[in-house]
Structures are given as structure tokens and as C-alpha cells.
């Protein structure tokens, strides 16, 4: 075997390992390029080069080249490990591109694991809901990574109090619309909604709008009615006292990952955006 074939084998194996790391994502739309996974593939490639050369040392005639391959593989291993653990090259956008497939793995394992204990099932369902929400939010932030934000809403400093005080407070910084369960929209708008916004195709809508413009969202355990224009393919804006939801179709930006974005705003100062799917004609 020539040295050229050896390096081709290592390079091919490294690329294959990089691709294989995405096979445990829940859905193809969750596949994003990840610097961290690239470094992990390089780490495994360097390790493979050292192991294979160790076993095949006698098959290659140039001792100096063989030693150089061993040293080079060790250097690639060390450098890749440092890059993985230091995250020194990972920016905010790169971080989110890496986290989306990571969250997708949590969705897949939580949904498909053979769970019989209702306590564990409840925990798994909460993980699924949280991961899907965060994936949709990260998609939105990736699309708006050129926007500079000086500050965001933050929870007030905790104050001494009782359990009753704690239960009566709402953490606005962590507040977000929950998916509507089947039948919930009917009680407010008389049906499931002619247009709905979903964070993912598998999750329930976080906004449902009737043909007349009446809308509903599920916020902190309350079905909140909203009012606005009759919905259409381009989206629209619906409001309630203290809150608003705006949906905008992505137009030419739409792809298989998402076709619309929703921005949820509270007058208190909280603003959260999600990328997902705006479906009319339900």
C-alpha cells in the first residue's frame, strides 16, 4: 500500500465519521454544520492515523515517514482536542449551529425511548417541548445574527418571601407560548384555526387564527384570546392587552427548514423570535 492510499484512507474515514455523527439527529432540518463536530472528526482521524500506522509500520519502507505520520497524527489529536474543549473558535452563531443537532438528539431519544415510568415519561415530554422551542428560537437568531442587541429583558433580583409569594410570581424572562393541545383552540376561536404557526412539523401550534382574525395562544397555563386581521399566507399581527404575536412568511428565504417566523412580545420588555411553519387552510 502506498502512502497516498494511506492518507486517502484516513481522509475518507474522517469525512465518513463526520457525516455519521449526524445520523442520530431527529430530523434532517436539524442538520447544521458544526465546528465542534468537525474538530471531533479530526480528532478521530488523527487517532486512526496513529493506530493504523502502529499496526502497519512494517508495511511501509520509509521509517522517517512512518515516524512523521505518528507524530503528525498525535499533533492533530492534541490540537483537535484543545479546539473541542476550549471552543476558542466558536462564535455565537457557530454555537447555535452546533446546538441544534445536539438538541435534536435529545428529541429523538426522549421520544423513542421505551419509557414506562410515568415520571420519566413526563420528564422526557418536557425535554422534547423545551428542545423544540429552543431549536426554533436558535433558527430565528441564526437568521438575525447581523442584528446587534445591546440588552435583553432579565428577571428582577430575587427577594425574600414565602412559598405563596414564589407561586404567585411569573418569571417573565422564561415565559414563552406553549403548544396548543388538540381541542384547546376550539374554546376560544371555535375551531383548530384556519392558520397556525408551529415551531416544528411535529409540535402543536403556538398560535391559531380563525378566518375572522380571532386568535389564541397558550401562555403560562392560560388560553389567551388575541385579535387582528383575517390571516393569510403572508402572515399578520395579533394582539391582546400586554402582548402581541407577529407572523411573517419568509418568501424567497423559505426552505425545507422553515417558511415563516413568529415574534412574541410582552409590554414588560420580553421579545422572543422563532422560525417555523405557517400553515393556512387547516
TrEMBL record:
It comes from the Bacteria. Pfam families: DUF305. InterPro entries: DUF305_CopM-like (IPR005183), Ferritin-like (IPR012347). Residues 94-150 form the DUF305 domain. Keywords: Membrane, Transmembrane, Transmembrane helix. The keyword Membrane applies. The keyword Cytoplasm does not apply. The chain crosses the membrane at residues 6-27, 39-59, 65-84. This is DUF305 domain-containing protein. The lineage of its organism: Bacteria, Pseudomonadati, Pseudomonadota, Alphaproteobacteria, Rhodobacterales.
